[in-house]
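Lecture 7 notes: from sequence to structure.

We start with a single chain of 257 residues. Read the sequence below before looking at the structure.
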Amino acid sequence: MASDHHGTENQARAQTGERTFTRFLLPRTELTAPRETATMGEAAIALGLPVAVFLARPAASLIMGTDVDWFITDRRLLTTLAYEVVLAATLGWWLSKRGWRLLDDIRAPERSDLLRGPALWFATWVIGVAVILLVAAAVPSVEALRVDVPLQGTLSVWTLAAALLINPVFEEILWLGYAIPTIARRYGLMTAAVISVALRVAVHLNQGIHALTAVLPVALVFTAYFIYTRRLAPVVLAHIIINVWGLGHFVAGGRET
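Now the structure, written as tokens:
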């Protein structure tokens, strides 16, 4: 009896999550039926594996008591991009075998997305600056808010180009295109948004306060925009602009902070 009761509760929760997701998005574009093969075990693997991969190095440094090496080189960044390509290919193949199709859960790209992307970036920048100013006003010492990440090094134009093409596409498909619809259909949009934002911020925790003052506002804005519009292309474009802003300094003769 107890197992039947819990089974009924889980089914009801799944149906509620599905209704919430469908009701929120159907006015904008018709939604395909939920995948029967989509389980939380699948989501745990698809989302947990990238988090584990990208937190392994800083976690090892923390356990061993050594400082994280922040020197940026072509080889180091290309290694990170290679991890993303391998994860994308592996998880993409596996999820496709289980019936997942990205275009089932997002709106197809449009020419107008070329305008939406920069607009989204500007809105994200304004909100990010506002967050930093608000936090600075609430903290006695503004110096405590400094992003103390000693980044230095140089990058080639070709490495920057690879980073602009691969990283934004990988992250936005993972945290938005896959995570939001998959989790929302079972547990609702709020739970999906919280998990998506938390995981995105988690993989940047090695950046210290920067993960909260910069990455968190970006994650919140991107997630809210995607949930409301189901447009992924503008988010990817906005992410590309952010990467140009952040990594472009390393191409122009290097940067040291």
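The helical segments are 2-25, 40-64, 74-97, 113-138, 157-187, 189-202, 210-229, 233-251. Keep this in mind for problem set 3.
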